């Protein structure tokens, strides 16, 4: 057995135990089974990853069943071993710290192994070229660590350089709405955005408009260069792809949506011309739609990850309609609040890991309807605690003419920014052309 200073059994157990408690941790790990010292730990982590890939819950019964099926249950130590690991969770908040401990011990072991090879290449094989290659490998091992561990000085230099290179352009993806861009600086990478409203207020229509605008190419005002639009992945758990495309065609072509129900009966020649033009525009956008009704975060992550691999340098926007319909892991039983908390945290981790913007639509509770002023508030978010904590930006949609037929704010929607981690809160007003499913900047009279 290797000396104990070359491995840390407790840290390995803490990492595995934390995964039992929070399956989404598997998405952001920097270590894999090769970094673990104990064989049973390596086998267990592989099984956990396989279950997560299959969108199955990583919990004791499922893990034991899978190990038994593969003939590995007795190899790891049976049910007592799995049960023991599931209880080894000093504090999930220390997961990254425990990962780093495991990684540092692996680096020590790997360096020792490479040192032996280096000595053999020099003393026995008399092969300096091989020795040099081994030495470079040893340097690579020692440099492997978390991105977060780079020095504060390096980070400060990076921030300062970014400030000097600022051109005044949007720092994020263009939403297509001037006032909204001013308040948010666009759709920001690594951000989780929540767009919430009561049913029939226009959540899906708004998200489709933003998706279409984000996917369009933009012109840099300073250089005149064309910047490719974002790659957009829409995950619609409620509405079929065909219906979404019809809405986008109506919005792009300014076509009455009621006619789209039966074009052969209601379309005139102008409508056909508009629809052909709109379809041509939309067909040229890098928009992907997945309308599978039962999607888990793991499913959404895999789809987005494939797009990120295909387009490593492009902006990526992931839109989910809507959050409360996402399939949970099942490990929280009937506790929907805990399940939504896990989903919310996983979406935030996805935004960070894939360097993308995640926009999740969310339903609001019926409490809105019981108030005289029906403008949404943070407390109206269903299962609000975790969503409010994880989100970088929360926007509520409100239409006064939906509730008040005599409202003076006809065909207008308020986008109420209730939370913005790195920006102001406030309200942006847009015009809503309902018959086209279209949102546009509100034209105000000159003063």
From TrEMBL:
Coiled coil: none annotated. It is an enzyme of class 5 (isomerase). It comes from the Bacteria. The keyword Oxidoreductase does not apply. Its EC number is 5.6.2.3. It catalyses: ATP + H2O = ADP + phosphate + H(+). PROSITE patterns: SF4_HELICASE. Pfam families: DnaB, DnaB_C. GO terms for molecular function: 5'-3' DNA helicase activity; ATP binding; DNA binding; hydrolase activity. Residues 166-446 form the SF4 helicase domain. The keyword Iron does not apply. One of its GO terms (cellular component) is cytosol. One of its GO terms (biological process) is DNA replication, synthesis of primer. Keywords: ATP-binding, DNA replication, DNA-binding, Helicase, Hydrolase, Isomerase, Nucleotide-binding, Primosome. Gene3D superfamilies: DNAb Helicase, Chain A, P-loop containing nucleotide triphosphate hydrolases. InterPro entries: DNA_heli_DnaB-like_N_sf (IPR036185), DNA_helicase_DnaB (IPR007692), DNA_helicase_DnaB-like_C (IPR007694), DNA_helicase_DnaB-like_N (IPR007693), DNA_helicase_N/primase_C (IPR016136), P-loop_NTPase (IPR027417). The main replicative DNA helicase, it participates in initiation and elongation during chromosome replication. Travels ahead of the DNA replisome, separating dsDNA into templates for DNA synthesis. A processive ATP-dependent 5'-3' DNA helicase it has DNA-dependent ATPase activity. Belongs to the helicase family. DnaB subfamily. This is Replicative DNA helicase. It comes from Bacillus cereus VD184. The lineage of its organism: Bacteria, Bacillati, Bacillota, Bacilli, Bacillales.
């Amino acid at each position: 057995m290797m000396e104990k200073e070359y491995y840390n059994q407790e840290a390995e157990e803490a990492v595995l135990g934390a995964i039992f408690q929070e399956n989404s941790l598997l998405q952001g790990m920097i270590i894999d089974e090769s970094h673990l010292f104990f064989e049973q730990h390596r086998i267990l982590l592989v099984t956990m990853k396989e279950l997560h890939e299959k969108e199955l819950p990583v919990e004791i019964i499922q893990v034991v069943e899978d190990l038994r099926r593969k003939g590995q249950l007795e190899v790891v130590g049976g049910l007592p071993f799995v049960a023991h690991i599931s209880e080894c969770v000093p504090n999930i908040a220390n997961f990254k710290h425990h990962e780093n401990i495991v990684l540092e011990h692996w680096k020590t072991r790997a360096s020792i192994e490479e040192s032996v090879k280096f000595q053999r290449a020099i003393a026995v094989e008399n092969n300096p070229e091989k020795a040099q290659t081994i030495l470079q490998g040893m340097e690579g091992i020692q440099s492997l660590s978390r991105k977060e561990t780079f020095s504060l000085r390096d980070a400060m230099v990076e921030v300062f350089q970014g400030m000097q290179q600022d051109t005044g352009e949007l720092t994020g993806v263009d939403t297509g709405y001037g006032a909204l861009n001013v308040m948010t600086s666009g759709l920001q990478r690594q951000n989780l955005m929540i767009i919430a409203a009561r049913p029939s207020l226009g959540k899906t229509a708004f998200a489709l408009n933003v998706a279409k605008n984000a996917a369009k190419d933009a012109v840099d005002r300073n250089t005149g260069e064309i910047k490719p639009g974002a790659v957009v992945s829409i995950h619609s758990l409620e509405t079929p792809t065909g219906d979404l495309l019809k809405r986008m065609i109506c919005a792009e072509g300014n076509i009455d949506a009621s006619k789209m129900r039966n074009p052969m009966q209601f379309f005139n020649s102008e409508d056909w011309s508009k629809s052909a033009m709109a379809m041509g525009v939309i067909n040229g956008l890098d928009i992907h739609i997945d309308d599978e009704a039962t999607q888990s975060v793991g499913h959404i992550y895999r789809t987005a990850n494939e797009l990120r691999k295909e387009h490593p340098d492009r902006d990526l926007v992931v839109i989910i309609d809507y959050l409360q319909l996402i399939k949970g892991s099942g490990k929280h039983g009937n506790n929907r609040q805990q399940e939504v908390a896990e989903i919310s945290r996983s979406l935030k981790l996805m935004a960070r890991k894939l360097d993308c913007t995640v926009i999740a639509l969310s339903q609001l509770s019926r409490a809105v309807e019981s108030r005289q002023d029906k403008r949404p508030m943070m407390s109206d978010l269903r299962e609000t605690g975790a969503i409010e904590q994880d989100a970088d930006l929360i926007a509520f949609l409100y239409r006064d003419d939906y509730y008040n037929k005599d409202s003076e704010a006809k065909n207008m929607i308020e986008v109420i920014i209730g939370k913005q981690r790195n920006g102001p809160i406030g309200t942006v007003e847009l015009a809503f052309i309902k018959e086209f499913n279209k949102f546009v900047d509100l034209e105000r009279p000159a003063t």
